[in-house]
């Protein structure tokens, strides 16, 4: 870790975790129900929103913001109560992501990625691995990042020449959202054909400690939006991992367990994170309209000229809030966001119900009972929600300038960050492919073949 920390110091500084120290005691007690958890997320957003534009402009590594998430307890919202967690369903976690994103899109994204990676053992792991990692992450309030960008070449996994009980990861990742400010990282790689000639290039996911010298971060994230997600690149060099920590693998036979990784349930990691995206997109869009409305009420001026000349029978509006086109625009976008929210909430409830039934506290592991059709139907619902939110969100975050006026483009207002945040992440995977997937479902009844983005 020393090499990574030194590298950071030479590139750009981090934010100071002590600025949020007061919230460690203020939020020392976890909420007791879903209403309390959503309120806690709103409280976090209220802390982040006032200086979100300034913090984004400073573009510091978000160590303070991660500390705030830890103080809030939101990192443990899904964790079992027996380990000190909130034991809330995914539907509540998704709403929490959305609420935090209203205050700061970057931090909503970090929370969402953490929850996905923290939950990965429940999707990919053996029962003993689920217990191990869920207990550790929840009880220690750990923040989890990932180095799993599938558009890069896979990390290469070879045997450890010094210990057959271990494997070694090598390679690099262009995007590693949240990893540099994490406690644990999810690595993913494929078995080398030279070391494992009969492996067929199977993939392995594993949790690893961020402090290990085998990973070095570049701290080179400098996109136009979501600037506080620390999503830059990393180099993984001779990172040693025990076979015991290969999620869903048998450490003794060194083979993937077919009843864990060979079932449709194991591919739910992808629609789960697609819905993470959709919820923080929605939070960003909702916040953009709210901030624009507040600006319009306070600062936007009405247009003093009419185009009808002497034939015009209507006088110019006295206030911006009387302008018909301003009222019409706000009304339209509010209606569309209400519809988008209803669709997203429906998707949240559907996948949450699936996890409650198959990944909860059961006396037996029934994840293998989830069918390809169940998985496919949820994937298509999530794809539809993402299509709608992407379209509405980009429209809203652009149109807010039409109803606030030229002075609202001032940097101090910060309205531009909403569009930049959405535009940055909606390019994560082409929405055109989501439209095609849904189209094939509607016309042909075809569920998509699971991929890294489906």
TrEMBL record:
GO terms for biological process: L-leucine catabolic process. The keyword Oxidoreductase applies. Residues 276-428 form the Acyl-CoA dehydrogenase C-terminal domain. Keywords: Flavoprotein, Oxidoreductase. SUPFAM superfamilies: Acyl-CoA dehydrogenase C-terminal domain-like, Acyl-CoA dehydrogenase NM domain-like. GO terms for molecular function: 3-methylbutanoyl-CoA dehydrogenase activity; flavin adenine dinucleotide binding. It holds the Pfam family Acyl-CoA_dh_2. The keyword Membrane does not apply. This is Acyl-CoA dehydrogenase NM domain-like protein. It comes from Neurospora tetrasperma (strain FGSC 2508 / ATCC MYA-4615 / P0657).
């Amino acid at each position: 870790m020393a090499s990574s920390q030194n590298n950071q110091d030479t590139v750009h500084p981090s934010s100071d975790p002590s600025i949020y120290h007061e919230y460690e005691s203020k939020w020392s007690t976890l909420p007791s129900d879903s209403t309390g958890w959503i309120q806690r997320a709103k409280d976090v957003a209220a802390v982040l929103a006032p200086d979100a534009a300034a913090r984004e402009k400073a573009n510091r590594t978000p160590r303070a913001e991660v500390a705030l998430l830890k103080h809030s307890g939101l990192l443990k919202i899904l964790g079992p109560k027996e380990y000190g967690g909130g034991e809330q369903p995914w539907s509540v976690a998704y709403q929490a992501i959305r609420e935090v994103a209203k205050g700061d899109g970057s931090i909503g994204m970090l929370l969402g990625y953490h929850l996905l990676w923290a939950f990965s053992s429940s999707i990919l792991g053996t029962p003993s691995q689920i217990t191990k990692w869920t207990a550790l992450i929840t009880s220690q309030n750990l923040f989890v990042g990932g180095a799993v960008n599938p558009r890069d070449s896979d990390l290469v996994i070879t045997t450890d020449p010094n210990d057959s009980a271990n494997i070694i990861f090598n390679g690099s990742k262009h995007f590693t959202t949240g990893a540099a400010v994490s406690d644990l990282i999810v690595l993913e790689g494929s078995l080398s054909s030279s070391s494992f000639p009969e492996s067929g290039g199977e993939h392995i996911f594993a949790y690893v400690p961020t402090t290990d010298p085998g990973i070095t971060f570049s701290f080179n994230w400098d996109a136009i939006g979501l600037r506080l997600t620390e999503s830059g690149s990393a180099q993984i060099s001779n990172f040693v991992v025990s076979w015991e920590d290969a999620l869903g693998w048998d450490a003794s036979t060194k083979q993937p367990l077919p009843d864990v990784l060979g079932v449709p349930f194991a591919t739910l990691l992808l629609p789960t994170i697609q819905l993470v995206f959709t919820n923080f997109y929605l939070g960003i869009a909702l916040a953009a309209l709210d901030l624009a409305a507040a600006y319009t009420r306070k600062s936007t001026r009405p247009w003093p000229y009419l185009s009808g000349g002497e034939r015009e029978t209507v006088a110019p509006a006295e206030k911006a809030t009387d302008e018909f086109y301003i009222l019409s625009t706000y009304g339209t976008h509010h209606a569309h966001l209400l519809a988008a929210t209803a669709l997203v909430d429906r998707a949240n409830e559907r996948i949450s119900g699936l996890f409650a039934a198959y990944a909860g506290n059961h006396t037996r592991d029934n994840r293998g009972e989830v069918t390809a059709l169940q998985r496919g139907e949820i994937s298509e619902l999530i794809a539809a929600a993402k299509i709608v939110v992407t379209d509405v969100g980009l429209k809203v975050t652009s149109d807010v300038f039409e109803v606030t006026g030229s002075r609202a483009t001032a940097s101090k207002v910060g309205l531009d960050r909403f569009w930049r945040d959405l535009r940055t992440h909606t390019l994560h995977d082409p929405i055109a492919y989501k439209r095609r997937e849904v189209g094939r479902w509607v016309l042909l009844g075809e569920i998509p073949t699971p991929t890294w983005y489906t």
